[in-house]
Write a structure and sequence with these properties.
The complex is a heterodimer. Chain A is globular and about 70 Å long. Chain A folds into two domains: about 240 residues, 3-Layer(aba) Sandwich (Rossmann fold), CATH 3.40.50; about 130 residues, Rossmann fold (3-Layer(aba) Sandwich), CATH 3.40.50.920. Chain A is an alpha/beta fold. Chain A has a seven-stranded mixed sheet with strand order 3-2-4-5-7-6-13, with helices on both faces. A six-stranded mixed sheet of chain A has the order 10-12-11-14-15-16, sandwiched between helices. In chain A, strands 1-8 form a two-stranded antiparallel sheet. In chain A, helix 9 links the parallel strand 11 and strand 12. Chain A is built from twelve helices and 16 strands. In chain A, about 40% of the residues lie in helices and about 20% in strands. The termini of chain A are far apart. Chain B has a domain of about 60 residues: Alpha-Beta Plaits. Helices cover about 10% and strands about 20% of the residues of chain B. Chain B has two helices and five strands; from the N terminus they run ββαββαβ. Chain B has a two-stranded antiparallel ribbon with strand order 2-5. A two-stranded antiparallel ribbon of chain B has the order 3-4. The chains are: A alpha/beta, B alpha+beta. Strand 9 of chain A pairs antiparallel with strand 1 of chain B, so a sheet runs across the interface.
Chain lengths: ~400, ~90
């Protein structure tokens, strides 16, 4: 296995090359652009034998991917933020049509106010689109997850598009030393794409995505939900297989750090799991048993695994890098619902942090752990707190 | 639960959306004495509701013609007239 130093965006492009993707259609947007620039280089040099389709928008990018996937090709696209929102209609189409498209979303805040920095609201806005959503912590995981994503998407038990979410700049533009699997290894892990029975066949013309009457629509939606349930097992199997081949696996649906004996656990997605893990080490050096639960998958939502990991924990901090105005916390609500449904009732407190790329440090996570334990011990409500909020106090309150 | 396929697929069949001719408020009438058999109406009909005979004569299938008027608009010799449907 070869070692190299590359950025998260370059790692995604390398994963696409190793997965022998056949069609790429994409439109540039910061901080994603480097992914498709790098892929264009691979296609131009002949290292990747793929058709690169230049399109006029993200909506068209996904439409082209949908057509190519329905034709039986292995396809890829990438976008961020505003681009993902513009693409949204077609994102839902790919999910509903059960097409194994793989897309990298480099997480960036949504405007206004205009921002190019990391925030999870873009991908989370698409959480009901019928895509498997996987979140990576670092550059190596970005590369590995692209390759895993095709195995998951094309598995007959799944047949769903997969979105790989990586933090804008924090992962996309960070250079890390990583191990590059050989083409031979990837080929043994990821079989050549075989067309499913329902692909477009010019000798047997059919219409796709046609109207479904009220007598049949619900059944398609039920099947979509069943496929997501099936994806839970497949995501785990694929990650375990990858681990056997490379020595690297990421816990399947959830990545646990020091959770076994933990009294307080931080639940989150994305790259700042690294800061939270450092904070857990600091807490433990002070005699507090802290742990980190990183959701690697938010769709399917790993409710069973999450409850199993948290059922004996005293206090849970859910840290959202996104906002559902009026709720206000997306992950917090989903974690609470899973715990409630399964009868596990640790104390749960919500935090909103890091919106629009606001820096969050290990010390901030130390504060999150301490604040959560204090709330638990004092019997407070788990009211959501905003981390590092400054300059608020307008006439609205 | 009935068996449903993974994705929604329809095989081509005449009138799979029902008798769409019922939607029509105006019907195209073809004057065959003016028709030059250019087949533009047959090509442009978005519903495939114009049938082409062996001698390239054309006929409207009123079971499915929605009365959009594209054929009348395209006809270069004005051989197609849109006539209001009687109630």
């Amino acid at each position: 296995m070869q070692k190299t130093v590359i950025s998260g965006n370059e790692a995604v492009a390398l994963g696409v090359k190793l997965a022998k993707v056949q069609v790429v259609a994409a439109y540039p947007i910061t901080p994603q652009t480097i992914i498709v620039e790098k892929i264009a280089e691979y296609v131009e040099s002949g290292e990747l034998k793929a058709r690169f389709i230049n399109v006029e928008s993200e909506h068209s990018a996904m439409a082209a991917c949908i057509g190519a996937a329905a034709g039986g090709a292995r396809v890829f696209t990438a976008t961020s933020s505003q681009g993902l929102l513009y693409m949204s209609e077609m994102v839902f189409w790919a999910g509903g049509a059960r097409l194994p498209v793989v897309m990298a979303v480099v997480n960036r805040a949504i405007a206004p106010p205009w921002s190019i920095w990391c925030d999870h609201n873009d991908a989370l806005s698409q959480r009901d689109s019928g895509w498997v959503q996987l979140w990576v912590e670092n550059v190596q995981e970005a590369l590995d997850t692209v390759i895993q994503a095709y195995r998951i998407a094309e598995d007959e038990r799944v047949m769903l598009p997969v979105m790989i979410c990586l933090d804008g700049f924090l992962v996309s533009h960070s250079y890390e030393p990583i191990e590059v699997p050989s083409q031979q290894l990837v080929d043994s892990f990821l079989p050549e794409k075989t067309p499913a029975p329902y692909w477009i066949d010019v000798t047997n013309p059919r219409s796709y995505g046609t109207i479904a009457s009220p007598e049949t629509y619900m059944e398609f939606r039920y099947e979509l939900q069943e496929a997501m349930e099936g994806a839970k097992r497949v995501v785990k199997e694929v990650d375990e297989d990858w681990g056997r081949l490379t020595g690297r696996s990421y816990g399947g649906l959830i990545d646990l750090y020091l959770c076994d004996d933990a009294e307080v656990v931080a639940v989150l997605i994305g790259s700042w799991a690294g800061d939270a893990k450092e904070a857990a080490d600091i807490m433990r050096s002070r005699g507090v048993k802290a742990g980190v639960l990183r959701l690697r998958s938010t769709r399917p939502f790993p409710a069973e695994d999450l409850v199993e990991a948290l059922k004996d924990v005293d206090a849970v901090a859910v840290v959202d890098r996104s906002l559902s105005p009026g709720l206000p916390s997306i992950l917090l609500s989903e974690v609470k619902a899973a715990l409630y449904e399964h009868g596990a009732k640790p104390y749960v407190k919500g935090f909103i942090a890091g919106l629009g790329g606001r820096d969050v440090t290990p010390q901030d996570f130390v504060n999150v752990f301490e604040r959560t334990l204090k709330g638990f011990k004092k019997g407070e409500t788990g009211k959501v707190e905003w981390v590092g909020l400054r300059g608020v106090g307008s006439g609205h309150r | 639960m009935p068996e449903v396929p993974v994705t929604a697929i329809a095989r081509p069949a005449k009138g799979s959306a029902g008798r769409t001719g019922l939607w029509r408020t105006e019907r195209p009438l073809i004057d065959s004495s003016k028709c030059v058999k250019c087949l533009l109406c047959w090509l442009y009909c978005p519903e495939g509701a114009i049938t082409r005979g062996e001698d390239d004569s054309v006929e409207v299938d009123y079971e499915y013609c929605k009365g959009c008027g594209i054929c009348a608009n395209e006809c270069p010799v004005k051989a197609i007239e849109m006539v209001p449907e009687a109630i």
